[in-house]
Amino acid sequence: MITQLTRLRFYGCVLGLVAVLLSFAGLLTFGLNQGLEFTGGIVTEINTTEVVNLQDMSSQVSNLLGPEASVSLIDDGHTWSIRQPLLKDPDLSWFAQLGENTASETTLLNSSIIGPQVGDELLEQGGLAMLAAVLAIFIYLAFRFEWRFAFGAVLALFHDVVITLGIFAWSGLEFNLTVLAAVLAVIGYSLNDSIVVADRIREILRSKPCQAVSQSINQAICSTMSRTLITSGTTLTTVGAIWLLAGRPLQGFSTALFFGIVVGTISSICIAPTLPERLGLRAEDYQPKEPVPELV
Fold first, then answer.
1. For each of the chain's 296 residues, which pLDDT tens digit applies?
2. Cβ count within 10 A of residue 3
3. Which residues, listed in sequence order, are joined to residue 99 by a DSSP beta bridge?
4. Does residue 210 contact residue 20 with C-beta atoms inside 8 Å?
5. 2-34+118-286 has which CATH code?
6. How far, CA to CA in Å, does 262 sit from each of 32, 49, 156, 162, 252?
7. Which residue, of 24, 153, 286, 291, is most buried by count of CB atoms within 10 Å of its CB?
8. Rounded CA gap, 289 and 296, in Å?
9. How far out from the chain centre does Cα 251 lie?
10. Where are the domains of the chain?
11. DSSP string across 227-274
């Protein structure tokens, strides 16, 4: 069992490397389908006197503004937010026709234009926030455990983020602020799993210093496996329900969380503990040091 787990960890690392390379290929070939928050666009808020079904409203808006327009419900079916790409000569001539098609009196509440320079600033700030989070994680783990575990955890986070972005590049799903928030959530979720496994490895290395490091890592993974599967399973159930039932507005958010949690769980089991082993992790590094006698 222990030998098989070591083999599975190695296969998981190889599979992760292949997935990262494929993700890079997708990002370089297709890029991310950035949302209006990053590319700029027009956001219009309207109110309807009658309750309108989300599917019907999305269909009517797509017919008037094209498939790139998106609709989201703000309250209980009366207030809507409609987003469309930035046009050279924006106008609201479609607004009157929308009221006729939905058989409901519509009122224009607000219309604003988001320039592309604002989107570039948001994307830059989001990237800097992600970089700052990863740097803070590395410093914390280096003090909490040691640099080998810190390096393994950060590489696992890099693996999770790149694969999640690669899924969006290959699928063409819209990458917006909610997806960016989901990616940041994936970082925290994957880090939590990696810390749990690393803490258990440290305990076993202290209690069994003569045991092989690979065997100690495998025992730590087995002892935390039930906790990992239960936590990931319950979270995936919730995210899966959002993915299936919440509709188009939260499709990107739920997709990023779902696949991010899956790859994050795998990386916390395969990559985060395996890399410290390859970097020369030793049980001696965690043994209590004997006090040096003072010279009289």
1. 556 778 888 888 999 999 999 999 999 998 888 777 777 777 888 888 777 777 777 887 888 777 777 787 776 667 887 887 776 555 666 776 776 666 667 777 777 777 666 566 767 777 787 788 778 877 887 787 778 888 888 899 899 999 999 999 999 888 888 888 888 888 888 888 888 888 888 888 888 888 888 888 888 888 888 888 888 889 899 888 888 887 667 888 999 999 999 999 999 888 988 888 888 887 777 666 655 455 54
2. 10
3. none
4. no
5. 1.20.1640.10
6. 21, 43, 12, 13, 16
7. 153
8. 21
9. 13
10. 2-34+118-286, 41-114
11. HHHHHHHHHHHHHHHHHHHS-GGGHHHHHHHHHHHHHHHHHHHHHHHH
What tokens does 232 get?
Answer: 């990931």
Pick the CATH number of 41-114 from 3.40.630.30, 1.10.10.10, 3.60.40.10, 3.30.70.360: 3.30.70.360
DSSP classification of residue 78: S
3-state SS, residue 90: coil
